[in-house]
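re: that chain from earlier
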Amino acid sequence: MDRTERFYKIEMLIRSRGCVSFAEMREQLEVSPATLKRDLQYLRERMDAPIEYDAAENGYRFGQQWRGQRHELPGIWFSEKELHALLTMHQMMAGLDENGLLSRHLQPMLDKLTGMLGGDEVEAQEMTRRIKLISTARRRVPSEHFETVGSAVVKRRRLKLRYRKRGPGGGSVSERDVSPQRLVHYRNTWYLDAWCHASDGLRRFALDAVEAAEVLPDQVARSLPLKELEGELDQGYGIFAGGDPQWATVIFGAGIAAWVSSEEWHPSQRSEWLPDGRWQLELPFVDATELLMDLLRHAGQVEVVSPPALREAFAKRLTHAVAALDA
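^ sequence. v structure.
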């Protein structure tokens, strides 16, 4: 445990217990008496920490003016609640990271945060296991590709990709020279938004379809304004982007309206309650594939009003589903 972690622990021990004996501090910090004396002296003299010795209680506490109040050391310091929130967010991040790539890089930070807690470290680690993310249909991304792509995004360097486009017979493979713009995590899958120099436009690449990735160290990536990126790739529904969006109008039955109305289907959606208790939703889409998939989850309780092509495609999906049951 380094000195910064010890400072955190001393502060939090006093804050959480009110008064802490010298022996308790030594046990928690696992340091010699001389080291603890130096730490206390440094906190009081160099960092203006209002720590004083209480002879009646035989322990250290904050000065009278700070009792019951929050005292913070200079610099970037966290309260116990903030530390627990950070540990929880770390655990959630790990849940998005089946191969352990992100967790591996973040582990030193996790160890430091855990060490800053004034309580028992085993208890702190147990707390992080109280967060569970359940994911389905996860598509694995080779860790070496994720690291390469992530590095190129941060360092603003161009990438050479060997990419397999999905299709009949396994799809086709092509090599692309791209300028990475951002990483996107959507429904348990990672994507790269990039400017493709071959097609001279913005494209979205699924990282699990990348067969090889190489950073071009001497070639700076073309950088696009965030508004242009959002305007091109974030207007459609779900992961499908590119092209002019259409607007869909759907109506959910009263039986599920209360639940569905609390969901955000798209940031630009419009909605209203109908007099009979149903909920009408309007939202943009470019490609109907993913929108139809989500609407089919509510089959029998949702009506597709417009556009006609979407209504027809939805009816066709329902018809095929019934035919498959009768086959």
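Residues 308-326 form the longest helix (19 residues).
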